[in-house]
Amino acid sequence: MKKGIHPENYRPVVFKDMSNEDVFITRSTINAKETIEIDGVTYPLVKVEISNTSHPFYTGKSKLVDTAGRVDKFMSRYGNRNKK
Fold first, then answer.
1. DSSP character for 82?
2. 19, 36, 62, 78: which is deepest, by most CB within 10 A?
3. Residue 29 and residue 13: Cα distance in Å, rounded?
4. Alpha helices for the chain (secondary structure H)
């Protein structure tokens, strides 16, 4: 591996899945504006929309994620084509 190209500031960071409130701690270099306290220790907090605990591929459940009405917009454009 090349020397000097990898970041040196890895630290524990909490990632929170906003769809099911699941949290997990991992090492990362990501910048976070918020913090969270877990077991008396304060960690940087990064909020994510989907993680492995809520993604349909990993859970086996089909879940429709609608962000900003995109599904409704798609259905209004293309959903009624078979009803002609």
1. G
2. 36
3. 8
4. 56-59, 70-78
The rounded radius of gyration (Å) of the Cα atoms in the chain is 19
CA gap 40, 78 in Å, rounded: 51
pTM of the model: 0.64
> Edge-to-edge strands of the sheet including 11-17?
23-28, 11-17, 41-48, 34-38
Tell me if residue 83 falls in helix, strand or coil: helix
Report angle CA 84, 64, 53 to the nearest 5 degrees.
160
Give the pLDDT confidence of 1-28 residue by residue, as tens digits: 788 888 888 999 999 998 888 999 999 9
Residue pair 16/46 in contact (Cβ under 8 Å)? The answer is yes
